């Protein structure tokens, strides 16, 4: 299995600690277990920031980073080994495993954190944490601080600055290393295979969930624990619902089906959309819309390179989509004026993409100092233009209504431009029709 190597977690912790102010401490909690219903839990997914710094896959754990501390800069609180719990729920690293396998300098049982952590915080000037994103953890931090305050008469020094960790950490996460790109390529490769399989299986009379099952099969067979987000399998008019999740309608002859789905490998997402005809052959109207979306995506790729700014790709899609809609008579007027008045938003109401990484909508600022961010090598993003003609749009001829098309690929900015990670699924009309014809 392709995964992030242990040395990279060490490098990340060092890089973060190098940016922290002197005499400070960073504290990050693992994701909590979420109850699905009664005795059933949701599949556990580690918190992305926690995972990024540790690779430690268990709940009930806390990372503590103390740059410059002589007795070890990286302390991990985690669950202890427990023969009975491990018999029921699976193995735990325990404090020994945290040191041996996960590079902690020191590890303590999570049950001892209230006794130990105030002592580690005491005397440090600043505390870095993800303030505001986890109310329960914020409360714990304040309790630990109050323990120190209560000992002020004994000379204990509580920290006097609290700093949001997100800015430093999320900027690091925005730039993908070679190892991260390798993992993202693997997630993309498996997701491409899933889309190909769903295309080949597409038949009128099946349900949307039948195609979802084809996706899930490839995801799991490829080693993905789960999809990176709820798969969207939207046939016919459902393709005009941007975050459709019901996935239970029948696939009808003559309709399109839009699938937006990608798996997650070692906590890195892929995010692919393809749209194809259920019966394997585009109608003239479907093809006309499809060709515009495809051309807009190609125009966007040309705007992704170092020194181009974040919005240039979006602007390229708006230009091509607006001109295309005018050409088909779906919008009337001057292209520049229709762009200025955002008339295209009746058909294209989302942006051309987002950062991609451990979170499908990944962290990282889109603007810096009020200006669109300039792209740099290693940034990963999606390119996903679409046209959605509402089934209820009375301003267009009936033949266009209910057509929804999105095409989405994942790219990484390179020195020359960008690398498309998700090129392994057919995308042109001819390629899609050929693949589907061969599967019939
Ligand atoms: N799958 C969600 C998105 O494309 O942003
Ligand atoms: Mn996306
Ligand atoms: Mn998507």
TrEMBL record:
UniProt keyword Metal-binding, yes or no: yes
SUPFAM superfamilies attached to this UniProt entry: Creatinase/aminopeptidase, Creatinase/prolidase N-terminal domain
EC number, UniProt record: 3.4.11.9
Entry keyword set: Aminopeptidase, Hydrolase, Manganese, Metal-binding, Metalloprotease, Protease
A Pfam family the protein falls into: AMP_N
Enzyme class, first EC level, given as a word: hydrolase
Cofactor(s) it depends on: Mn(2+)
Record carries keyword Hydrolase: yes
Domain spans labelled Aminopeptidase P N-terminal: 4-138
InterPro entries found in the cross-reference section: Aminopep_P_N, Creatin/AminoP/Spt16_N, Creatinase/aminopeptidase-like, Pept_M24, X-Pro_dipept-like
Family that this chain belongs to: Belongs to the peptidase M24B family.
Protein name per UniProt: Xaa-Pro aminopeptidase
Organism for this UniProt entry: Pseudomonas lactis
């Amino acid at each position: 299995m392709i995964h992030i190597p242990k040395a990279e977690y060490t490098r990340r912790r060092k890089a973060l600690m190098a940016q922290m102010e002197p005499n400070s401490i960073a504290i990050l909690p693992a994701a909590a277990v979420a109850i699905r219903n009664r005795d059933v839990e949701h599949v556990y997914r580690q918190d992305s920031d926690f995972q990024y710094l540790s690779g430690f896959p268990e709940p009930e754990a806390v990372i503590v980073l103390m740059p410059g501390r002589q007795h070890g800069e990286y302390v991990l609180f985690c669950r202890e080994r427990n023969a009975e719990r491990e018999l029921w729920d699976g193995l735990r690293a325990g404090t020994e495993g945290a040191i041996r396998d996960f590079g902690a300098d020191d590890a303590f049982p999570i049950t001892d954190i209230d006794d130990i952590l105030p002592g580690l915080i005491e005397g440090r000037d600043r505390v870095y944490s993800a303030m505001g994103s986890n109310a329960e953890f914020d409360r714990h931090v304040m309790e630990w601080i109050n323990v120190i305050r209560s000992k002020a008469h004994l000379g204990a020094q509580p920290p006097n600055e609290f700093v949001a960790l997100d800015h430093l950490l999320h900027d690091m996460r925005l730039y993908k290393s070679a190892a991260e790109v390798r993992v993202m390529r693997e997630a993309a490769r498996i997701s491409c295979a899933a889309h190909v399989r769903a295309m080949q299986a597409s038949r009128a009379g099946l349900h949307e969930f039948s195609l979802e099952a084809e996706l899930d099969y490839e995801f799991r067979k490829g080693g993905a624990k789960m999809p990176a987000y709820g798969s969207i399998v939207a046939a016919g008019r459902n393709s005009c619902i941007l975050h459709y999740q019901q996935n239970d309608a029948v696939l009808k002859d003559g309709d399109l089906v839009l699938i937006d789905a990608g798996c997650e490998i070692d906590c890195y997402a892929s995010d692919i959309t393809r749209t194809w005809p259920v019966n394997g052959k585009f109608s003239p109207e479907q093809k006309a819309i499809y060709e515009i979306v495809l051309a807009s995506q190609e125009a966007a790729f040309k705007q992704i390179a170092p020194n181009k700014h974040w919005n240039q790709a979006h602007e390229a899609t708006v230009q091509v989509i607006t001109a295309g809609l005018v050409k088909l008579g779906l919008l009337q007027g001057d292209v520049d004026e229709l762009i200025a008045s955002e008339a295209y938003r009746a058909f294209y109401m989302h942006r051309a993409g987002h950062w991609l990484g451990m979170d499908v909508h990944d962290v990282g600022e889109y603007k810096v100092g009020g200006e669109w961010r300039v792209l740099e090598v290693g940034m990963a993003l999606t390119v996903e233009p679409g046209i959605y003609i509402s089934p209820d749009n009375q301003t267009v001829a009936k033949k266009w209504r209910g057509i929804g098309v999105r095409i989405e690929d994942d790219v990484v900015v390179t020195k020359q431009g960008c690398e498309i990670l998700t090129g392994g699924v057919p995308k042109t009309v001819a390629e899609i029709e050929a693949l589907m014809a061969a599967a019939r």
